[in-house]
Design a protein that fits this description.
This protein is mostly beta strands and 189 residues long. The strands form five sheets. The chain has a nine-stranded mixed beta sheet with strand order 1-4-7-10-13-16-19-21-22, with no helix packed on it. Strands 3-6-9-12-15-18 form a six-stranded parallel beta sheet, with no helix packed on it. A four-stranded parallel beta sheet has the order 2-5-8-11, with no helix packed on it. The protein is globular, with a radius of gyration of 17 Å. The mean pLDDT is 95. Belongs to the transferase hexapeptide repeat family. Pfam families: Hexapep, Hexapep_2. This is UDP-2-acetamido-3-amino-2, 3-dideoxy-D-glucuronate N-acetyltransferase.
């Protein structure tokens, strides 16, 4: 007996691995070779492909398709209608399944509503991709990315708050976590 919850309208293909306490809501389709951790939540109209690995405590909001060659590590948040791709130059009349480019979203990262992550890139730990942003290159850990193409405009705390921009203050004003911040890096102390 499954230790996860599946809405009657959802389709979970035989062979899919789903961890305990995961919730699969309305009109979700999870393919047979998908590997999903514990305590995840898949909102309405989500698709999860075969060559997909999802860690624990991942939240996928409504209308997200997680195509083959995508890995989401623990504690990732995918906002409503955000998009993953898996081929850089798709054509309907040319099969490119052997050209899929792997995308990895590292632990604790957030991808905002309607953002797009172009395939073949890594989104670093606890990075924050703003709503509507288009990720076209690797994203540094803790980076706050916005725009099209996405550019770093600051750094984010693990708790989800923007870190101060001041040169001498590198502590989160909400949780107090301190960070070592330099030109192209941000790491908790």
């Amino acid at each position: 007996m499954a230790a996860y919850t599946v809405h009657p309208t959802a389709i979970v293909d035989d062979g899919a691995q789903i961890g305990d306490d995961t919730r699969v809501w309305h009109w979700v389709h999870i393919c047979s070779q998908a590997r999903i951790g514990a305590r995840c939540s898949f909102g309405q109209n989500v698709f999860v492909g075969n060559d997909v690995i999802i860690g624990d405590n991942v939240k996928v909001q409504n209308n997200v398709s997680i195509y083959d060659a995508v890995t989401l590590e623990d504690d990732v948040f995918c906002g409503p209608s955000m998009v993953f791709t898996n081929v850089n130059n798709p054509r309907s009349h040319v099969s490119r399944k052997n050209e899929y480019r792997r995308t990895v979203v590292k632990r604790g990262a957030t991808i905002g509503a309607n953002a797009t992550v172009v395939c073949g890139h890594t989104v670093g730990e606890y990075a924050f991709i703003g709503a509507g942003a288009v990720v076209t290159r690797d994203v540094l850990p803790y980076a706050l990315m916005v725009g099209t193409p996405a550019k770093r405009i600051g750094w984010m705390c693990q708790c989800g708050e923007r870190l101060p921009d001041s040169i001498d203050q590198h502590a989160c004003s909400v949780c107090g976590q301190r960070y070592d911040i330099g030109g192209n890096h941000c790491a908790p102390l």
